[in-house]
Amino acid sequence: MVERFGVRSVHEIIGGIVVLFFLILLSGIKIVREHDRLVIFRFGKIIGHRGPGIQLVVPLIDRSLMIDTRITALSTPTIEVTTKDQVPIRLSALCRCHIKDPAKAVAKVDDPFAHTVEVMHTLLSSTISEQTSQELFARQSELNGTLKRALNLQATSWGVRVNSVEIKEMVSSNGSLKSQKQD
Predict the structure, then answer these.
(1) Residues 116, 157: Cα–Cα separation, whole Å
(2) Quick one: which of 46, 66, 44 has its CA closest to 55?
(3) Angstrom distance (rounded) from CA 104 to CA 84
(4) Amino acid 1: pLDDT
(5) Residues 151, 119: Cα–Cα separation, whole Å
(6) Domains in the chain, ordered, with CATH?
């Protein structure tokens, strides 16, 4: 009776270990949706990113972070800038962008979209202050392209691709000049 009890206990222990190993292996299976990317960290270092489908992450060694790569619309708050000819102008802009390189977006900045908005805000101020009010209202589509190129140049370094930048609203403070984008 003692021998039989000892053999049964060994089988239960081995069975428990097999079940535990199977559960740990299952915890490493990740399902990545079409618009997401899975950034993989091994012992704290980024080893790459993986696309949609069923992905296996080594349990207990790798960590993963899901990144959404869909296009996001970012809007700046309304700012007031003085043009080259000393006309105060209130304006706001809309930027459409998405994460192009998930590994850079995770490693380079804490919030890639917040950084994009801050750079867009700075670019708006500096670009508007270099133009006259008449140039701004006459060449608004050129201004959008200039802002997009300048923003994309900086945002690429942290993994964001800028699709478009549009001035939503541009009004001179005295009300004489007005341009507003219709949604």
Answers:
(1) 11
(2) 66
(3) 37
(4) 43
(5) 7
(6) 2-68 (no CATH), 72-180 (3.30.479.30)
Q: Is 158 within 8 Å of 115 (Cβ atoms)? A: yes
Helices (H), ranges, 63-139: 102-107, 112-129, 133-138
Is pLDDT larger for residue 69 or for residue 168?
A: 69
d(CA 112, CA 42): 22
CB 90 within 8 A of CB 80: yes
Return the C-alpha torsion angle 76, 85, 143, 120, nearest 10: -30
d(C-alpha 46, C-alpha 14), whole Å? 35
**pLDDT in the model for residue 60:** 87
* Mean pLDDT, residues 73-102: 92
Residue 105: how many other CB atoms lie within 10 Å: 25
